[in-house]
């Protein structure tokens, strides 16, 4: 004998779709033709372009806290991983972005929003310079920057650091 669920599923009639009167998608009208929305005015387009420019300008600043945290977690020891991370996060990526700075904003510039886009570019460059400044600070913490006279002059004796161990 067959189970009850099998007979219930197989004896009920199957619903058929009403193909004669299909519903149209939301973006189409009653006639089936696509409804075209009105074009945005030039002022609206400029406002959207400036918003996009600010998004581009602030993007490096959003990754700076994470880069600083990763830099902190990698330590200040002189090993290949922290040095490579510092070079890539704080120097190579910002330098590449500085070189292509104007190209990123070129498609957004129009005669009416040129000054606003220029302000976005300035903020973008300042954030990239702050990122590079964080890299210089990290290199200083690692001891890779020459900051004493003995680092530059051969006849100067290097500073002697006294290590104090508390036991």
Your description of this structure?
This protein is mostly helical. It has helices at residues 4-11, 42-74, 80-99, 101-106, 114-142, 149-152. The chain has a domain at 87-144. The protein is built from six helices and no strands. The longest helix is centred in the middle third of the chain and has 33 residues, at 42-74. The protein is flat, with a radius of gyration of 31 Å. The chain starts with a helix and ends in a 15-residue tail after the last helix. The model has no long low-confidence stretch (mean pLDDT 83).
Q: What attributes characterize this protein structure?
A:
mainly alpha, 167 residues
Give the total of beta strands: 0
SSE pattern, N- to C-terminal? HHHHHH
Strand content is under 5%
Q: Please give the share of residues in helix.
A: 55-70%
**Termini gap:** 84 Å
Radius of gyration (Å) = 31 Å
Protein structure class: mainly alpha
List low-confidence stretches. none
Q: Strand count, sense and closure of the main sheet?
A: none
The overall average pLDDT, rounded, is 83
Tally of separate helices: 6
Shape: flat
Give a topology summary.
Elements: H1 4-11, H2 42-74, H3 80-99, H4 101-106, H5 114-142, H6 149-152
Helix pairs in contact: 2-3, 2-5, 3-5
In short, what is this structure?
Belongs to the EMC4 family. The protein is mainly alpha-helical and 167 residues long.
């Amino acid at each position: 004998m067959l189970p009850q669920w099998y007979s219930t599923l197989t004896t009920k009639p199957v619903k058929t779709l009403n193909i004669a009167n299909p519903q149209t998608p939301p973006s189409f009208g009653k006639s089936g033709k696509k409804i075209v929305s009105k074009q945005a005015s030039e002022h609206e387009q400029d406002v959207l372009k400036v918003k996009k420019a600010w998004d581009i300008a602030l993007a490096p600043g959003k990754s700076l806290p994470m880069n600083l945290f990763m830099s902190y977690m990698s330590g200040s020891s002189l090993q290949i991983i922290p040095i490579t991370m510092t070079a890539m996060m704080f120097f190579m990526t910002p330098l590449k972005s500085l070189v292509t700075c104007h190209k990123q904003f070129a498609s957004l510039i129009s005669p009416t929003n040129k000054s606003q886009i220029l302000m976005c570019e300035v903020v973008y460059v300042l954030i990239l310079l702050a990122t590079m400044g964080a890299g210089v600070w990290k290199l200083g913490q690692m001891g890779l920057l020459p900051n004493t006279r003995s680092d530059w002059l051969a006849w100067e004796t290097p500073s002697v650091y006294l290590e104090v161990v508390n036991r």
